[in-house]
């Protein structure tokens, strides 16, 4: 869709020769050691400035005072129970956020460790929802070099020594190490999931070093992408006339971040594995207070011995002078000999660490590099935490245990396989990335920002479990700290079977849709009565340890390859809620494009949730009133915090059952996913929830004009921005949902619902345009407030989705382009000349809408979504200029330093709110718009709304209609629908 010469004359954003000499690039141009020219770059001596956090104005503080008091009380109450509130603006991290982030390590869902561009390991998230931001400075790579004759010797930590606590005179800890690297001639290059650090003559002027960091994030690979491991490949090029002995040391502290290393009881153990892989296991017993009874973690650090590379280990050293072997002893041994004693492999496990003592380990790999010769040394890191335990809920086996088992010692096998397979991983990564990287029509900044924004799927806090049931060996009686576990009260949770009003003899049935069975074991019938579990209407579940399952969504008949387990990811590291749905609406393009089975799994979770009810009382903090936690028919805001899938809606600022955007967003995402994948089984499974979600919204159409109205409070994803009457954002989403629901009903042969939704759409569309269209854009809302005529950047969110799904446009083309041009001219270009992104609200007089904190913010993910809408409307130049503002402000060298921690948004002066946030993944909606899936491109081009009255023929592609007699079994229906679907259309997954 991008024109061939649109960016032909643009200068590349990151010319390689400005960072590394051409001669060095040529020397490293083998075995993937040279970084690609399309990578994001930073010099190691760059200053990591402290980031500026968002603050509210005096008037905003007055408006939110009551909310603030209630939120403060709620945060304190949660803390008294040993829990962290999902939203806590009052607690500040001890480590101030800085512009120091880099590509994180590992695959998805097994805990994450980030690594800054200067080499520090930080932001450990091994425990779900707990992020330890401070770097662990003992975790380092160091180098020791000696030349033939012994005249030249160099040693240094391979990170600039610009950190607090270093340089203490007489220290026996890491201050005794040589932190002599200036970083002036060293550069970092990032192209997620890989990163390169090139040391161009540092610390030895005659040695070129490239460290390549590789993690197994591989689209459509649902096994390797779950592995908690990473590889570091060092390529050494000796440009001198003398042979050089080069030794590299990888040191690691037995810690999961924070002060966990001081809790005591931790043990280190050397090992010799297969294929020359040797190293140290670090068993972390999770006795620290922050662990809250979580299962233990085992780290493994290792290197691969080859004919030219010798590997030795130091199983245990400490950071104080009381340690039997100190950090200084370790350093001095490496500086003198370049290796440790070979007998260390015969040592038994170390004595458990004492409280206050830190156990560290080191792996050394050394090799001789001939004059003008080259050498490769590979290290690996893995962490094994086989079970994930939620504070108020069950324990589950992580996804990788499906392939490696639940032993803590699987870390040993993980590092081995990583060192054996990393070249294959790189081949698959390059095969995925190269078509985009080599597309000369695309600007350079877009290419690396597109891939690097995916960092969030690793570092944003993700949990990927194997299967759908809790870990079988979990004991219900006692937690790890010996106290009785706090179990959820299920007495007020009702799980309701799907209810669909089927008329005119058209019935769609599916045995165990969403995993439920009735009391006699038969499949559920969709009639006008619902079946309940718990409560007064049926037998109460008496198993306190296993609450009523709001899960088990994948059909049990699917084979093993189809079952990808269950996936959670946080809204952000500051907003600790799993799979926040109004934000997933923006981010989900990344999962659908790269891991479509995960995306369908998440949608099945929410389809199940729509049909459930949880009557436990919750206090909503904005108004101070109470309501039930989960209302039947309403899409939940999130899947919970401390007991996901079972205790949903951790968000309690507003009553989200009254929000107007969640249900339409569910319908739109379901249809888009169905249209892109052609998965008829998925469509059949979620259709009852789609109907229920649409029916639920009818209560908000109070004047029967087909259009929903907002209720005079922030009842949408902009939860501080009040809306009155009909709104551009929610109204447009509702129109799009009506069109998508009608199209889906048509595909499934449900003519009554197709006719119903089409009729509502035609009625609502005319009202929407009559009430909001002002000649150049849609007003913010139909009210009479001071901002009712504001230009909202996100006003065409519904149009974005229908265009992304191959549906007809909601409005005439000239109106769509008029709106987008207005947003571009005002919300984008009138804010710092377009170098910031699109501000959420702008008055028609060209002044930023400051009616609330969110109207004056620039939301990164919304900006990407607006840019995608522009691409779909054939406004490519405006699209890339709009999105480039996010790059300029967040990722460029002159920006605010938000790389690999892209926040929810920032103000015009660059103050951020909520770092490491889900919504910026919406940049993948731009790539989606540029490369629509084949299934969407090949859809019939006639108007879907006109097709509603066309007769359904047996050979219509992708359309299934089944009239069912009462004695026809639901299993037969399902099987016949699948056969018909497979005959008409093949399942397709998008691969950009």
What does it look like?
Helix 10 runs parallel beside helix 12, helix 11 (662-677) packs antiparallel against helix 12 (680-697) and helix 13 packs antiparallel against helix 14 (751-772). The radius of gyration is 29 Å and the shape is globular. It contains 22 helices and 31 strands. Strand 6 and strand 7 (194-200) form a beta hairpin. A 9-stranded antiparallel beta sheet has the order 1-6-7-8-9-16-13-12-11. The chain is α+β, with helices and mostly antiparallel strands. Mean pLDDT is 84; it is low at 3-12, 287-291, 474-561 and 948-992. Helices cover 28% and strands 17% of the residues. The protein folds into 2 domains: 16-39 and 135-448, Beta-galactosidase, Chain A, domain 5, CATH 2.70.98; 566-938, Glycosyltransferase (Alpha/alpha barrel), CATH 1.50.10.
- Taking the alpha carbons of the first and last residues, their distance comes to 14 Å
Helical fraction equals: 25-40%
Q: Helical element count? A: 22
- The average pLDDT score comes to 84
Q: Enumerate the spans where pLDDT stays under 50 for 5 or more consecutive residues.
A: 3-12, 287-291, 474-561, 948-992
**What structural category characterises the helix and strand content?**
alpha+beta
How do the strands line up in the largest sheet? 1-6-7-8-9-16-13-12-11
Please state the overall shape, judged from the principal axes of the Cα atoms: globular
Largest sheet: 9 strands, antiparallel
What is the domain total for the residues? 2
Oligomer: single chain
Proportion of residues in β-strands? 15-25%
Rg estimate, integer Å = 29 Å
Q: Give the strand tally.
A: 31
CATH topology (fold) name of the largest domain: Glycosyltransferase
CATH architecture of the largest domain: Alpha/alpha barrel
Quickly name the level 1 CATH class of the largest domain: Mainly Alpha
Pfam families: DUF608, Glyco_hydr_116N
Organism: Macleaya cordata (Five-seeded plume-poppy)
GO biological process, one term: carbohydrate metabolic process
Domain Glycosyl-hydrolase family 116 catalytic region: 565-926
């Amino acid at each position: 869709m991008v024109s061939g010469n649109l960016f032909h004359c643009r200068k590349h954003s990151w010319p390689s020769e400005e960072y590394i000499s051409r001669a060095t690039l040529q020397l490293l141009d083998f075995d993937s050691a040279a970084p690609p020219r399309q990578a994001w770059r930073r010099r190691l001596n760059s200053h990591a400035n402290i980031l500026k956090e968002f603050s509210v104005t005096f008037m905003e503080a007055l408006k939110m005072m009551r909310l603030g008091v209630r939120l403060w009380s709620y945060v304190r109450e949660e803390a008294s129970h040993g829990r962290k509130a999902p939203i806590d603006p009052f607690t500040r991290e001890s480590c101030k956020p800085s512009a120091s982030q880099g590509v994180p390590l590992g695959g998805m869902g097994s805990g994450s460790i980030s690594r800054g561009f200067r080499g520090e390991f930080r932001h450990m998230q091994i425990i779900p929802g707990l992020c330890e931001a401070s770097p662990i400075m003992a975790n380092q790579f160091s180098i020791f070099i000696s030349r033939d004759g012994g005249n030249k010797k160099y040693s240094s930590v391979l990170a600039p020594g610009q950190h607090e606590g270093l340089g203490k005179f007489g220290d026996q800890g890491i201050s005794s190490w040589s932190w002599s690297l200036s970083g002036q001639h060293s550069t970092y290059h990032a192209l997620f999931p890989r990163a390169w650090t090139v040391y161009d003559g540092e610390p030895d002027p005659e040695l070129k070093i490239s460290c390549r960091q590789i993690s197994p994030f591989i689209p459509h690979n649902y096994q390797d992408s779950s592995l908690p491991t990473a590889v570091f490949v060092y390529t050494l090029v000796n440009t001198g006339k003398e042979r050089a002995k080069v030794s590299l040391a990888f040191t690691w502290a037995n810690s999961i971040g924070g002060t966990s290393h001081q809790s005591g009881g931790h043990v280190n153990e050397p090992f010799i594995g297969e294929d020359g892989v040797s190293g140290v296991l670090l068993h972390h017993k999770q006795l620290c207070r922050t662990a809250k009874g979580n299962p233990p973690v085992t780290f493994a650090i290792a290197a691969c011995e080859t004919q030219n590379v010798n590997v030795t280990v130091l199983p245990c050293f400490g950071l104080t002078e009381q340690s039997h072997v100190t950090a200084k002893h370790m350093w001095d041994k490496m500086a003198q000999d370049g290796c440790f004693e070979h007998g260390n492999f015969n040592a038994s496990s170390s004595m458990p660490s004492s409280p206050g003592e830190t156990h560290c380990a080191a792996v050394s790999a050394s090799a001789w590099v001939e004059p003008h010769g080259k050498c490769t040394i590979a290290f690996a890191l893995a962490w094994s935490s086989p079970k994930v335990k939620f504070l108020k809920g069950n324990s589950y086996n992580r996804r990788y245990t499906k392939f490696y088992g639940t032993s803590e010692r699987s870390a040993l096998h993980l590092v081995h396989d990583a060192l054996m397979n990393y070249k294959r991983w790189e081949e698959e990564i390059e095969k995925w990335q190269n078509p985009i990287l080599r597309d000369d029509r695309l600007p350079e900044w877009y290419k690396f920002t597109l891939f690097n924004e995916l960092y969030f799927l690793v570092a944003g806090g993700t949990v990927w479990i194997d299967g759908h049931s809790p870990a079988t060996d979990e004991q219900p009686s006692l937690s790890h700290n010996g106290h009785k576990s706090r179990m959820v009260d299920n007495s007020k949770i009702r799980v309701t079977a799907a209810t669909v009003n089927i008329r005119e003899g058209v019935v769609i049935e599916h045995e165990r849709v969403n995993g439920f069975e009735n009391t006699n074991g038969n499949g559920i019938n969709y009639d006008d009565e619902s079946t309940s579990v718990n409560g007064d209407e049926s037998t109460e579940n008496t198993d306190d340890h296993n609450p009523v399952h709001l899960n088990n969504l994948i059909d049990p008949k699917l084979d093993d390859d189809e079952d990808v387990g269950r996936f959670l990811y946080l809204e952000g590291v500051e907003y600790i809620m799993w799979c926040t749905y109004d934000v997933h609406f923006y981010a989900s393009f990344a999962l659908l494009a790269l891991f479509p089975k995960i995306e369908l799994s998440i949608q099945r979770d929410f389809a199940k949730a729509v049909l459930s009810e949880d009557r436990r009382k919750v206090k909503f903090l904005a108004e101070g009133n109470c309501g039930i936690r989960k209302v039947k028919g309403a899409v939940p805001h999130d899947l919970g915090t401390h007991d996901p899938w079972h205790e949903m809606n951790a968000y309690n600022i507003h009553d989200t059952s009254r929000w107007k955007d969640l249900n339409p967003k569910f319908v739109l995402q379901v249809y888009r996913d169905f249209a892109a994948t052609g998965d008829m089984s998925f469509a059949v499974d979620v259709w009852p929830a789609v109907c229920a979600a649409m029916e639920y919204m009818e209560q908000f159409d109070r004047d029967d004009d087909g259009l929903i109205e907002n209720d005079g409070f922030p009842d949408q994803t902009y939860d501080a921005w009040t809306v009155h009457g009909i709104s551009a954002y929610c109204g447009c989403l509702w129109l799009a949902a009506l069109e998508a629901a009608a199209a889906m009903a048509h595909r499934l042969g449900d003519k009554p619902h197709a006719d119903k939704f089409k009729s509502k759409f035609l009625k609502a569309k005319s009202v929407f345009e009559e009430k909001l269209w002002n000649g150049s854009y849609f007003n913010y809302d139909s009210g009479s407030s001071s901002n009712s005529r504001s230009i909202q950047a996100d006003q065409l969110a519904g149009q974005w989705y229908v265009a992304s799904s191959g549906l007809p446009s909601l409005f005439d083309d000239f109106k769509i382009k008029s709106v987008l041009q207005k947003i571009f001219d005002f919300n984008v270009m009138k804010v710092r000349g377009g170098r910031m992104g699109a501000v959420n609200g702008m008055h028609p007089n060209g002044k930023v809408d400051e009616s609330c904190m969110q109207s004056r913010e620039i939301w990164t993910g919304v900006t990407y979504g607006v840019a995608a809408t522009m691409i779909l409307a054939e406004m490519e130049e405006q699209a890339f200029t709009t999105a480039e503002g996010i790059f300029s402000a967040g990722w460029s060298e002159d920006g605010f330093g938000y790389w690999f921690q892209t926040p929810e948004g920032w103000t015009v002066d660059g103050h951020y709110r909520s770092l490491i946030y889900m919504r910026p993944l919406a940049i993948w909606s731009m790539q989606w718009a540029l490369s629509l899936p084949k299934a969407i491109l090949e859809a019939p081009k006639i108007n879907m709304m006109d097709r509603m009255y066309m007769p359904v023929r047996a050979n219509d592609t992708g359309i299934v209609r089944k009239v069912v007699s009462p004695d026809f079994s639901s299993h037969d229906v399902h099987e016949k629908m699948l056969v018909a679907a497979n005959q008409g259309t093949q399942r397709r997954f998008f691969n950009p």
